[in-house]
Request: fold
Amino acid sequence: MRIMTELNGIYPIIELPEEVNPNPSLPIPAQFNVMNQNIMNQNKIEQQVVIIDSQMLSSMQNCWREYQLRFRFNLKPSSTPDYFKNGSLLHHGLAKYYEGIKLGLPKGECKLRAMQRMHESIPELNIEAEAGNWLIQTIDQYCDFYKNDSLVPIAIEQPFAKIIYEEPTLKIIYAGVIDLLIQDKEHRKAVDHKSETRHYDPSDLDNQFMGYTESIEGSWFMVNKIGLQKTLKPEQKFRRYVIRYEKPRLNEWLTNTVIYVKEMLEREQFPMNLTSCEKFKGCAFRSFCRSIPAVRPLILEREYRVDEPWDPIKRLRKENE
Reply:
């Protein structure tokens, strides 16, 4: 399989066999192990390929049990949280808006295209009409607020995969999808859209932000905040944070990432980290951990479902089919 990793001329193509397991935490049958042919021919050594993204990495760092349940057992809540669906709808609209900007269309037309795309997405995302309409109004306000924006989109929802570590027996590939890649007067920046219902400043200690900056071999990252509050003015709801990452910090992030991946590959036990249960909006597996072991099969059957294995390069696969 030819996995395209080129971000406008930055990266070459990674060659991966069709049999590569997208979930590195699942055992790979010996006959499907990915081989580095040059090394194999010379030294008869097998090379394991591990593909991760920021969600997998953050899960390893937050709680090993959560990582086990999400990425080894492929469990997820039976119902999708509203905040996740709302974020998806906003991303649909923003992608359509910036696609129009990239094509050179008038911004008013771009806004209408974005709102139409969101209207079409409301049923498929199973969002209530009132909530969906407010999200569309929010994008309407966003487009008006930034109507004089000078950002130049280079790519929209750009998937990537980059080799971040390689030795004879192990190759680690970091993957993701960049919401927006822009060029201003001086710098190329990866941009991530973040919706919020209450104000908070983003942290620069973030795997996604650092990984995306490293992926474009840059130093700058932008967090594009979109507030969903109904009582705030646009200048209070829409905020952009620009973060600079010096190369030594990104190198440290790479080293830290490799340490966690190697630990994951060697780990046989997956303990709880009780300090992470209430972070963000709360861990999705709190009800599982709160129950006694004897009743957990019932909890799993009632509140969770088995999803398809997490594939960090799913978008890349689709684009190259």
